[in-house]
Amino acid sequence: MQFSSGGWQILKEKETRFFSKTLIDSDRETYTERWKISSDDLGVGEKWRVEKYRIYGGLSNGVDVIMVDNGNLSFFVVPTRGMGIWKGICQGLRLGWLSPVKYLVNPSYINLEEQNGLGWLRGFNEWIVRCGLSNIGAPGIDSVKDNMGRDVEVMLTLHGKIANIPASFVKVSIGLEPPFEIKVEGTVYESSMFGSNLKLETLISTVPGSNSLKILDVIKNLRGVPDEMQILYHCNYGRPILEEGAQLIAPIKRVAPRDKVAMENIESFSIFGPPEEGFIERVYFMELMGDHNGCSEALITNKSMNVAVSHRFSIKELPCFTLWKNTATEEDGYVAGLEPGTSFPNTRRFERERGRVVKLKPGEEYRACLDITVHLGKNEVEDAISRVEKIRRDVKPTIYKQPIKEFSQIQANLK
């Protein structure tokens, strides 16, 4: 069945019928500037709504946003910025952080090569942002093939390009049968002539009334030759979850500081401090344990342990976990980042030398899934912690006091 006036379609997926609306389709030159739908309109589920709008003015001019409110949890997907998630709210709890970059920034205003490859930071304010796809991590020199097949050295910029590439296809689907799943699908191409040609297909979903969302990404190499791929999910938290005494809780097998600064107070690496003037970021590289299915879980909790957010993922898909502590002043971005990825955020050359860069054959796909759940109240948080402890199996983590060559390219001056 199809309603021609609104472009709706009824789809059947795994015995469940869906209403579907395509909002952006570059192939068909389809673009919808404003659109909304709710449980009242469809008569399925309760108190959910989805709204798509475009921002005008300032550095946000031309940015598309899709707001998903499942009646309990709301979040804002940004097709213009690689299908990242700008911010969220769960029962009044703010999810995300207050970046010095106050507004969403249209990628047309971003120069990734600015500040010796740190231009990515000009648009960095999301709750959940992907890093990749050709590279993640620190800016650095790497060797690539040019248009004449020669090996040339180029600068790879901080955290790659995908977060600053607009989606070419976006669709919203609503389940017509329980649990009335709400889905936002998007396709983003990171492509170049004589260079990488990677396609990201993402599915961001939630269920009405739930306190969780799921991100399922499939990255495909569209080239006729093998190519490299990296991805990292930069999940960022400020107040009210982040505060003095907040904690990272995870089934850590090994952890090492990135550099000399991170060596300070290494024994309390998982505890967060108050906003501190002049604080220099501290980064810790970790190997996590998984359950019998290879699933791991990392939480950030407030001091009272009555509010937490958990991140569940497969260590087969995302084997490297990074903790970013930037407890600077509120004005300078008081934030902590939980970052599961295919590798650590060093330069691609360093990660390749350690066998942590994914190599995709022509037409090959790589799948990564991330489940994020908000836990409110001591009982919910305790249940989440108990799952982590079950994965940990009473194993105490190995804590390295100095950077190790296996994890970190930055050599500390230990004198």
Number of β-strand runs: 28
The amount of beta strand, in percent, is 35-45%
Q: Give the uncertain stretches in residue-range form.
A: 1-11
What would you call the structural class? mainly beta
Your description of this structure?
This protein is mainly β and 415 residues long. The N and C termini lie far apart (73 Å). The chain contains 5 helices and 28 strands. A hairpin with a 3-residue loop joins strand 7 (63-69) and strand 8.
Jot down its keywords.
single chain, 415 residues, mainly beta, Beta-galactosidase, Chain A, domain 5, 12-stranded antiparallel sheet, 8-stranded mixed sheet, 5 helices, disordered N terminus
Please describe the topology of this protein.
Blueprint: E1 2-3, E2 8-13, E3 16-25, E4 30-31, E5 35-38, H1 39-42, E6 49-55, E7 63-69, E8 73-78, E9 84-90, E10 93-95, H2 114-117, E11 128-133, E12 140-145, E13 151-156, E14 169-175, E15 182-191, E16 197-206, E17 212-221, E18 227-237, E19 247-249, E20 252-257, H3 260-263, E21 282-288, E22 295-301, E23 307-314, E24 320-327, E25 334-341, H4 348-353, E26 358-360, E27 365-376, H5 378-392, E28 398-399
Parallel strand pairs: 20-28
Antiparallel strand pairs: 1-2, 2-3, 3-4, 3-14, 5-6, 6-7, 7-8, 8-9, 9-10, 11-18, 12-13, 14-15, 15-16, 16-17, 17-27, 18-25, 18-26, 19-22, 20-21, 21-24, 22-23, 23-27, 24-25
